[in-house]
Design brief:
123 residues, alpha+beta, Ribosomal Protein L22, Chain A, 5 helices
């Protein structure tokens, strides 16, 4: 496996809880499909924070951060067994192609106060 990009992010769960009080925040950061997935998991703020951190980690792995890539260009979901996976679209897919990336590997973890995510792009 050739690694063409890596990224990591950590976020305070409370910061995301406060941001979600404003209904514009989730609509800005998450697609409707992602939010439905989050709601199906009980709208757990640790999950929301983990998904937020995962988006940040992927944007860093792409070498762009947010600005060149939109929040909704990176979607985070869970497989039935709970493993997270990433779906890219728009500019995120463009930068993935530019890197020669073939797959994004993602890991998300959290404790009560913090959520962390790491992304590795395989080329």
């Amino acid at each position: 496996m050739v690694i063409v990009g890596t990224g990591i992010d950590i976020i305070e769960v409370e910061r995301i809880r406060k941001a979600c009080i404003n209904p514009r925040f989730p609509k800005k950061v998450f697609t409707d499909r992602e939010w439905e997935h989050i709601e199906s998991r009980g709208k757990n703020m640790q999950t929301v924070a983990g998904n937020f951190a995962a988006k940040e980690a992927v944007a860093k792995a792409l070498g762009t951060g947010f600005g060149k890539v939109g929040w909704k260009d990176i979607q985070i979901f869970r497989k039935p067994d709970g493993r997270p996976y990433v779906e890219l679209s728009g500019q995120a897919l463009f930068y993935m192609s530019k890197l020669g990336g073939k797959r994004v590997w993602i890991s998300i973890s959290h404790i009560k106060e913090l959520a962390v995510a790491q992304a590795v792009i395989e080329g």
